[in-house]
Amino acid sequence: MRNWLAFTGELIVAPTGAFSRLSPASHWIPPPLFAVVLAAAVHAASVPFTVALVQRLSVSASADALAGLERWLLRIAVVRGGWVAVKAGFICWVLWLTINLKGESVRARLLMMIAAYASVAFVAEDALRLCVSWLRGIEQIRGPQDLQSFTGLDAFIPTRDMGLVGRLALAQISLFSLWFVTILRGGLVGLGGIRSRSATVTAVLCWGYLFVLQMGMAFVVSSVQAPGQASN
Length: 232
What we know:
By secondary structure, this protein is mainly alpha-helical. Helices cover about 75% and strands about 0% of the residues. The chain has 9 helices and no strands. The protein is globular and about 60 Å long.
């Protein structure tokens, strides 16, 4: 685990150099497994804050009910960790498709390694939100808004009067999304052997596909919630 954390730290400073030192013969499974474990740990560490929020909003909740909720949330944390692997698989597919459409070629297992390491950028964003929550303290939680930590442009630009598209767009543009693109580019150059300019275009396009996916998911969620809200 120490080696994985050291490599992740190196991805911040010099991703291309970090990937160039990886052997193309390396097994592809450990990177996504590392990302899944890291994501599950981050989400598990955030469980006490959700339990505290429920306790604040429902003073009648029994200790047994809260304990059951905590166990359920820990299971959800494991599932959310697995979602990182699904996202890495989607990123891998997008990279493969984009690269092949441009007439270039990189082995799929190398793309999976690159995608898994790039996914760590989003895990780090969740970890930052968790750190902010811990600094605030559990005792400061009074409502759902206290669990929100803004890490994108929404931290600097008021979004209260914006629609869903505007809020989501600002939230998606952050230092972590830039880091994600940088890791993808570094992996494509250092491990995949892709030309620098082509790797940059491919990485930006991949982030754009993810952005569109997030937008679509947000619209689906909002459309599902709308009928229930209307009936109230």
